[in-house]
Design the sequence.
C-alpha cells in the first residue's frame, strides 16, 4: 500500500485502524456500564480508549479530535476517580460523544472538515453533566492545556541537538552565541538513586554542551566500614563553559529536580547588558525536595484487575491475504485436476500415489479452511455500528428503542461484514421507523413502551444466519396488498398467501410509506437490500406475526470464496448447485409426473405436489423433455421454503468449489450466480436455485409458491 | 552506542511512533503492550532504559514501575514515563513510583532521544 | 474516444475473408480455441466462458457480433484476449494475420452509409496492399447493446 519510505503514513494509517478498535472498546465499555452495576474496570477501559485516541491524535496534530477527546477524557477521568456518578442521562451523552468521536476520527482520516457544530453541542452537554454533578468544583484537569505537537518523521537529527525550548526555568531571551560560564553545585539525595538516575550521565550531557570540569567533594564520605553505597555522601561542583543558555543547562537536571540539592549559577557575563543574570552567589535554580503526594493508594487499585491476556496478533495488509486466498483457490483447482487425472489413469486405489493424493486432498482442505479463517472477523464491529443506527433512528422518530444483540462474536468473512453494513442499516432503520409502534400505541396494546430491536448472528449448517427482528406491530398485510395493487405490481384480483404478501416488500419500486420519512426513505427499498445480499451469495427471508413483530433473516455463505456444491450434468453441461439447498435426490418414474395443465408438470413428494423444473429447458440448453421416465431430479428447498424438483441428467460429484465471480459483461442470466473451474479446467456455472424457481414460475405461469420475481443479483463477488 | 530500549504502551500507534523515532537513531527497541506484558518481556532482555505509558490495562505504568524496581537487577534501570500532561503532580507521582524521568506526549522525537541520553547514556 | 497517436500498431486478423484490426495496446494475449461453457440466455455472439489461467473469460464470436455469416470452427481459429476498462474479453477470430504500423494519415473514417451491426463498431478504414483493413472501435464492440443504449 504505502511505500516503506513513508513510515509516518503507515503509522497514521495504523492509528486509524487502532482508533476503530478503541472505539469498539469504548462502545463495549459503555454498554457494560449501561447493562450492569458500575464496575471499575469498564470505566478504566472507557477512559483509556479516549485517552489513547487523544494521544495518537495529538501526535498527528489532529486538533479537532484532540480537542474533543480531551474534554471527553476529562469527564471520564472524573467518573474514574469517583468525582462523578454515571446515570442514564450521563450514559446517553457518553454514547453520543462516542458516536461523535467516531465521526471525528472518520473526518480526520478522510481529511474532511470535522463536524464542528456538533462538537460544540456535545461539549455543552458534557459540561452540563459536570455542572449538574459537581457544581463549582470543575476539576483542575480541564484547565490543563494540551497542545498537540505534530511530529514529523523521519527527522534529520544531526549530532548537535537543537536547543530545547525552555522548560521550567525562566526563559532567557538572549539568543547570543557567546560563551558563558556556569558554576553548578550538585548534591544528590538518597532517593535520586532509587529512581535509576545516574549523575555521571548528567555530567556527560553537560559535557556535550561545552567545557566541563568536575570536582568531587568527598569530605563527607565516612570510613569504609560505614559506607552504604547508595547513600550519597558526595557533592560535585562543576564548572561549565558553554554557549548554551541557562534553560538548557537546567533542563539536564529536569529529571532530578527535588532529588538533589542543586544550584546553577551563571558567572557574570562578559557582555554588560546581561541584566537578567543575578549575582554569582545567588542560585538561579535552587531546588529542594518537592512535596510529593502519596500515590500508594492509587496505584495498587488498578493492579488487582485481571483481564485475559491480549492475544498476540500480526497485522497483515489485506491485499496479501487476498492474494493468498486466490492462490489457495488455484491450489484447490489444481488438486482437483490432479485427482481427476490420477483417477482416470487406472491406478489402484491402494497405490502409494492414491494414498498420497488422499492426504494431499485433506491438507488442501485444511489449508483452505485456515486461510479462510484469516479473513474471518467477529460481527461485533458491525453490530456496534448498528447500535449507533438504532440510537440515531430512535431519536429521530421519537421512539424509545433498545437494541439487543446476540452472537456478536460470530465470525464472518471481512468482505461480507463490510458489505452487510448498508443493507443492515436499512433494515434496522426500517424496524425502528416502520416496525415498531410509537410509545402511545404500544402502551395501548399493553406492550412495553420501550420497543426492542434484536440483531443476532449465528452459524447454522455451514452458513451464517443474521436476523433483524422487532417486537412491533408486524406487517400490515392489507395495506401492503393495496399498495402493490395500486402500483400495478400485482394483478388486482391476485390471491396471495400471507408470506407472499410479506414478500411484496422486496419488489422493486415498492414502498409503503406515503410520505417519505426522514429515515428509511431516501429511495432505497427492500429490493436493494435483497439485491445486495444476493450479490453476497446470500438470501433474505421475511417472517411476520401481526401484533408480535417482524423478523428478517439473512443467510450467508461462510466465506465468499468457496461453496459446498453438488455437481450435476444437464444436456452435456456441467453445473453446480448449492448443496445446502438440496434436500434429496429422486429418480422419477413416468407415473410420478403429473401435469397441472400442459407444460406444467408437478410430482408428488410425500403427500405434497412440487413443481418440476426441467433445467435443460429452463437454461435454454435443449427442448422440453417429454418423457421423465428414469430421469434424475433434485428436490430443493430455498430459505423461503419454496420447493421444486429440478430435472437433471446425472449427479457427478459433491464437493467444495471455488467461486469465481461473473460480472455484467458476462450476460449473466437470472439463475446463474457465479462460475467455478472444474478439475478438467473447464468452467461450470453455479446456479442460484431460488432465481431459477422464480424465473421458471414466472415464465411458465405456474401457480407459484411465490408470485415474485426478484431482480437478478448484480454480480457475485468472491 | 546502541541502546536497547523497552517501550511499554497499550497504544499501537504510540509503540509504532516510538519505534520509528528511535530505530533510525540506532536504538534497539523492544515493545510490550501493557505493564504485565512488559514484565514478561523484561524477563528475556536487559534493556538500557525503559519507556512506559501510565494508563494501561491489566497493569498500569505505576504498577509496572513498582514491579520493575522490585527486581534486583532493575533497581537502577532508567525508566521514562510517557505522560500526556506536564502537570507537576503527575511528574511527582511518576517519580514517587520510581521513574527516572518523563516525556510529555505527544512526544518530540528529539526530546525523547535527548531524555534517553540523559538517563541512559 | 482517446486522441489518436501519430503512429500506432495494430493487430490484424481475418474474419470471413475480411481484414480487421484492433489496437495492439489492448491485446493481452492470443490463445488457441478451446471449448467454451455456454451462458444461458446470452445473445448468440456470446460463445460462453473459458478458463484463462484461473480467471473466467467471456468469449465473443466476433463474426457473429459483426453480423457476418456463420461458419464452422477450425483449428486455426484463435481467441484474441483484449482488455478494455479493466475487463478482459476474448474475441474469437478466424486467424491472426500480422502486426502493422499505421500513421494517422493512412486511416480514414468509414463513409456514412448503410448501418448494420458491423458498421457502428468500425472506427477507421485503411488500405494495405489493396486490402481494406477495418479498424475496430473496441469499446463499441465489447459494450452490451442494451447497456450502451440505456
Sequence:
Amino acid at each position: 500500500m504505502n511505500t516503506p519510505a513513508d513510515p509516518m503514513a503507515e503509522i497514521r494509517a495504523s492509528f486509524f485502524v487502532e482508533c476503530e478498535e478503541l472505539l469498539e472498546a469504548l462502545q463495549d465499555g459503555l454498554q457494560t456500564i449501561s447493562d450492569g452495576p458500575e464496575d471499575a474496570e469498564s470505566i478504566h477501559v472507557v477512559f483509556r480508549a479516549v485517552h489513547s485516541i487523544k494521544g495518537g491524535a495529538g501526535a498527528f496534530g489532529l486538533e479537532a479530535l484532540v480537542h474533543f477527546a480531551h474534554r471527553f477524557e476529562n469527564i471520564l477521568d472524573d467518573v474514574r476517580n469517583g468525582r462523578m456518578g454515571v446515570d442514564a442521562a450521563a450514559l446517553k451523552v457518553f454514547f453520543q460523544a462516542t458516536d461523535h468521536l467516531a465521526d471525528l476520527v472518520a473526518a480526520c482520516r478522510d481529511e474532511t472538515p470535522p463536524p464542528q457544530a456538533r462538537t460544540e453541542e456535545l461539549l455543552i452537554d458534557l459540561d452540563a453533566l459536570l455542572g449538574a454533578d459537581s457544581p463549582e468544583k470543575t476539576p483542575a484537569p480541564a484547565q490543563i492545556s494540551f497542545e498537540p505537537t505534530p511530529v514529523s518523521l523521519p527527522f534529520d537529527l544531526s549530532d548537535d541537538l537543537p536547543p530545547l525550548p525552555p522548560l521550567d526555568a525562566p526563559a532567557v531571551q538572549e539568543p547570543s552565541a557567546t560563551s558563558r560560564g556556569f558554576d553548578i553545585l550538585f548534591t544528590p539525595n538518597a532517593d535520586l538513586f532509587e529512581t535509576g538516575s545516574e549523575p555521571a550521565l548528567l555530567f556527560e550531557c553537560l559535557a556535550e554542551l561545552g567545557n566541563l570540569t568536575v570536582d568531587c567533594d568527598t569530605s563527607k564520605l565516612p570510613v569504609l566500614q560505614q559506607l552504604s553505597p547508595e547513600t550519597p555522601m558526595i557533592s560535585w561542583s562543576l564548572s561549565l563553559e558553554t554557549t548554551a543558555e541557562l534553560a538548557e543547562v537546567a533542563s539536564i537536571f529536569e529529571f532530578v529536580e527535588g532529588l538533589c540539592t542543586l544550584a546553577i549559577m551563571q558567572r557574570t557575563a562578559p557582555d554588560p547588558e546581561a541584566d537578567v543574570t543575578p549575582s554569582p552567589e545567588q542560585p538561579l535554580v535552587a531546588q529542594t525536595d518537592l512535596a510529593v503526594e502519596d500515590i500508594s493508594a492509587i496505584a495498587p487499585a488498578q493492579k488487582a484487575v485481571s483481564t485475559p491476556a491480549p492475544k498476540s496478533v500480526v497485522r497483515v495488509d489485506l491485499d496479501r491475504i487476498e492474494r493468498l486466498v486466490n492462490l489457495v483457490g488455484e491450489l484447490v483447482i489444481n488438486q482437483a485436476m490432479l485427482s481427476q487425472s490420477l483417477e482416470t489413469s487406472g491406478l489402484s486405489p491402494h497405490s502409494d500415489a492414491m494414498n498420497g493424493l488422499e492426504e494431499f486432498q485433506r491438507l488442501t482442505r485444511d489449508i483452505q479452511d485456515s486461510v479462510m479463517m484469516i479473513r474471518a472477523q467477529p460481527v461485533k464491529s458491525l453490530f456496534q455500528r448498528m447500535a449507533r443506527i438504532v440510537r440515531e433512528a430512535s431519536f429521530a422518530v421519537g421512539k424509545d428503542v433498545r437494541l439487543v444483540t446476540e452472537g456478536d462474536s460470530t465470525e464472518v468473512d471481512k468482505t461480507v461484514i463490510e458489505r452487510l453494513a448498508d443493507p443492515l442499516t436499512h433494515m434496522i432503520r426500517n424496524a425502528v421507523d416502520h416496525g415498531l409502534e410509537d410509545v402511545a400505541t404500544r402502551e395501548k396494546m399493553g406492550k412495553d413502551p420501550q420497543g426492542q430491536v434484536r440483531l443476532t448472528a449465528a452459524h447454522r449448517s455451514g452458513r451464517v444466519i443474521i436476523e433483524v427482528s422487532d417486537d412491533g406491530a408486524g406487517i400490515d398485510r392489507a395495506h401492503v396488498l393495496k399498495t402493490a395493487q395500486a402500483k400495478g405490481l400485482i394483478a388486482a384480483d391476485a390471491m396471495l398467501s400471507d408470506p407472499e404478501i410479506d414478500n411484496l416488500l422486496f419488489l422493486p419500486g415498492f414502498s409503503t410509506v406515503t410520505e417519505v420519512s426522514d429515515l428509511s426513505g431516501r429511495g432505497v427499498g427492500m429490493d436493494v437490500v435483497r439485491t445486495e445480499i444476493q450479490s453476497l451469495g446470500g438470501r433474505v427471508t421475511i417472517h411476520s406475526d401481526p401484533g408480535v413483530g417482524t423478523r428478517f433473516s439473512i443467510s450467508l455463505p461462510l466465506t465468499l470464496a468457496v461453496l459446498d456444491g453438488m455437481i450435476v450434468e444437464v444436456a452435456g453441461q456441467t453445473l453446480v448447485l448449492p448443496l445446502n439447498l438440496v434436500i434429496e435426490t429422486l429418480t422419477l418414474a413416468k407415473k410420478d409426473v403429473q401435469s397441472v395443465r400442459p407444460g406444467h408438470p408437478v410430482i408428488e413428494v410425500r403427500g405434497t405436489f412440487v413443481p418440476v423444473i426441467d433445467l435443460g429447458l429452463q437454461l435454454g440448453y435443449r427442448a422440453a423433455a417429454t418423457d421423465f421416465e428414469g430421469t434424475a431430479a433434485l428436490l430443493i428447498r430455498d430459505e423461503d421454503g419454496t420447493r421444486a424438483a429440478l430435472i437433471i441428467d446425472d449427479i457427478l460429484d459433491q464437493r467444495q468449489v471455488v467461486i469465481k465471480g461473473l460480472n455484467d459483461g458476462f450476460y449473466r442470466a437470472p439463475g446463474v450466480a457465479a462460475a467455478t473451474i472444474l478439475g478438467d479446467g473447464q468452467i461450470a456455472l453455479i446456479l442460484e436455485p431460488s432465481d431459477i424457481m422464480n424465473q421458471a414460475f414466472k415464465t411458465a405461469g405456474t401457480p407459484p409458491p411465490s408470485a415474485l420475481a426478484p431482480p437478478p443479483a448484480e454480480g457475485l463477488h468472491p | 552506542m546502541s541502546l536497547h530500549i523497552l517501550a511499554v504502551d497499550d497504544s499501537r500507534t504510540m509503540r509504532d511512533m516510538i519505534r520509528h523515532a528511535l530505530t533510525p537513531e540506532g536504538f534497539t527497541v523492544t515493545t510490550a503492550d501493557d505493564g504485565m506484558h512488559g514484565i514478561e518481556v523484561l524477563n528475556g532482555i536487559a534493556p538500557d532504559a525503559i519507556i512506559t505509558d501510565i494508563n494501561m490495562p491489566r497493569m498500569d505504568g505505576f504498577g509496572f514501575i513498582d514491579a520493575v524496581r522490585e527486581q534486583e537487577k532493575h533497581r537502577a534501570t532508567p525508566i521514562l514515563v510517557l505522560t500526556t500532561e506536564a502537570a507537576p503532580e503527575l511528574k511527582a507521582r511518576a517519580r514517587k513510583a520510581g521513574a527516572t524521568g518523563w516525556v510529555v506526549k505527544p512526544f518530540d522525537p528529539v526530546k525523547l532521544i535527548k531524555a534517553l541520553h540523559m538517563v541512559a547514556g | 474516444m482517446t486522441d489518436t497517436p501519430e503512429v500506432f500498431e495494430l493487430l490484424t486478423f481475418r474474419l470471413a475473408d475480411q481484414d480487421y484490426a484492433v489496437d495492439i495496446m489492448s491485446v493481452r494475449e492470443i490463445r488457441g480455441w478451446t471449448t467454451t461453457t455456454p451462458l444461458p440466455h446470452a445473445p448468440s455472439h456470446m460463445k460462453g466462458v473459458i478458463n484463462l489461467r484461473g480467471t473466467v473469460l467471456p468469449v465473443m464470436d466476433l463474426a457473429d457480433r459483426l453480423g457476418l455469416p456463420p461458419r464452422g470452427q477450425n483449428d486455426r481459429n484463435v481467441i484474441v484476449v483484449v482488455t478494455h476498462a479493466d475487463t478482459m474479453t476474448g474475441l474469437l477470430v478466424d486467424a491472426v494475420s500480422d502486426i502493422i504500423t499505421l500513421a494517422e494519415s493512412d486511416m480514414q473514417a468509414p463513409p456514412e452509409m448503410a448501418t448494420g451491426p458491423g458498421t457502428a463498431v468500425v472506427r477507421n478504414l485503411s488500405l494495405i496492399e489493396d486490402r481494406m483493413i477495418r479498424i475496430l472501435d473496441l469499446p463499441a464492440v465489447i459494450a452490451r447493446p442494451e447497456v450502451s443504449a440505456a
